[in-house]
Amino acid sequence: MKYHIVTYGCQMNLHESEKIAGILHGKGYTEESDIDSADIIVFNTCCIRENAENHAFGNIGALKQRKRQNKDLIIAVGGCMAQEAGKAALIKEKFPFVDILFGTHNLDELGDLIDKKRAQRKRVFSLKEERGETEDGIVPVRTGFPGAWVNIMYGCNNFCSYCIVPYVRGRERSRRAEDIVREVGSLAAEGYKEITLLGQNVNSYRGEDGTTFPELLDRCARVEGDFRLRFMTSHPKDFTGELVEVIKRHKKICNQIHLPVQSGSDRILSLMNRRYTREKYLSEIRLLREEIPDCAVTTDIIVGFPTETEEEFCETLSLVKEAGFSSAFMFIYSPRTGTRAAAMEGQIPEEVAKDRLARLIEAVNEQTRAISASYVGKTAEILCEGFDEKKNLYLGRDEYGRMGYFESKTNRIGEYVMLKIDRANGISLYGTAVDA
Ligand code: SAH
Ligand code: SF4
Ligand code: F3S
């Protein structure tokens, strides 16, 4: 019996798909990369923006025919969309061939749901209200070697006015620091080289004994082994000098931080309920750069938030320059039913938002290109993480997150490789391994 998992959304979901794989392995299934040959197909969905949902709907819908031909095929839908108010009923109605529906709070029940489905042949829908547990006991089948993800917390309490996450992921729950440090230790011992601590807002982590995020990060960085440490996502409202100190103290912690700004306008930031100002954000970046001059800052930005004016958008453009982002994820605001912003007056027409997005992308790309160009002729240490079949080159990232490609006759995945950078193209660097 073979499984195929389709994942949408953030790192959190990618890691949860590794747990889904763990459950399926436990039931004797093996992985199948071809969706058409699988006996069970699991969709791990995302509902952060409308296009993420449309994507999933399209791909689930495409299986109607296959299910007709193969009655034994099991189709399961889980993740954030399944947990979203009203969506479960919609999936049930729209896709009568979906066999199993499970939410974000009962992932650990998937094995039982599969047994149930096989026994009764009826559809099984199981969605749970939030539960307090932070240990699911599932052993993930990790797919990101040499990288590994470690959850440090679940859920979110921030209720940014545009965001659906607090509704589908529940309230903040932190794992015990001891459990996290132990997991980091065993990953390091297993040879993982890049460990990323995950949470919707890692800065508000609170361990059982009051451990703060900087303290947790410090403990993780003291774990023995030759690995890099990253974390995401940091919320600017809880950013502290102590965090900067810890990053500075440890070589293991990459000099790169993902600090989503969302907007450069104070009025929009306030409407978004972000709880910081443009000036506070910029002062954090200044502090970071004073202490760690080479630190790369990446961000998330939303354009076209309700009532955003051209002038306010231009404040976002100017902030991009001032903050000196090395790259950014940029999105058109997407109204999410049930969130405060979706009910706001002054929704921005799509053409206006699209135009703003295009101008923002150009502004960010200009900086990205300039940073890439500054690498040419220098060396960069990358952690080789894969092979690009199309380019026929190995690839990996440096500590700042910049992607470097190189040729090699031997498999170097999982090794640190020194590259002399020969040329740059957009965000990508191309180099020659100098230690091979
Ligand atoms: N917890 C993280 C982000 C999670 S969602 C944080 O607070 O930074 C990832 C990104 O998606 C957000 O940073 C935001 O830029 C974007 N996003 C969230 N909701 C959105 C919406 N309704 N429309 C467009 N972009 C959205
Ligand atoms: Fe969403 Fe805000 Fe929570 Fe991030 S911090 S997940 S943007 S509500
Ligand atoms: Fe992640 Fe999407 Fe859910 S971004 S938390 S998978 S809504």
Tell me about this structure:
This protein is of the alpha/beta class and 436 residues long. The chain folds into 4 domains: 2-126, Rossmann fold (3-Layer(aba) Sandwich), CATH 3.40.50; 144-254, Transcription Regulator spoIIAA, CATH 3.30.750; 255-372, Transcription Regulator spoIIAA (2-Layer Sandwich), CATH 3.30.750; 379-433, Beta Barrel (OB fold (Dihydrolipoamide Acetyltransferase, E2P)). Helices cover 35% and strands 22% of the residues. The protein has helices at residues 11-26, 50-61, 64-69, 80-83, 87-94, 110-120, 165-169, 177-190, 213-221, 241-249, 266-271, 278-291, 310-323, 350-375, and strands spanning 2-7, 30-31, 40-45, 74-79, 100-102, 124-126, 147-151, 153-154, 173-174, 194-198, 228-232, 256-258, 296-303, 327-332, 379-388, 393-397, 403-406, 416-425, 428-433. β16 (393-397) and β17 (403-406) form a beta hairpin. The longest helix is centred in the last third of the chain and has 26 residues, at 350-375. The radius of gyration is 22 Å and the shape is globular. Bound molecules: S-adenosyl-L-homocysteine, iron/sulfur cluster and FE3-S4 cluster (F3S). S-adenosyl-L-homocysteine (SAH) binds next to β13.
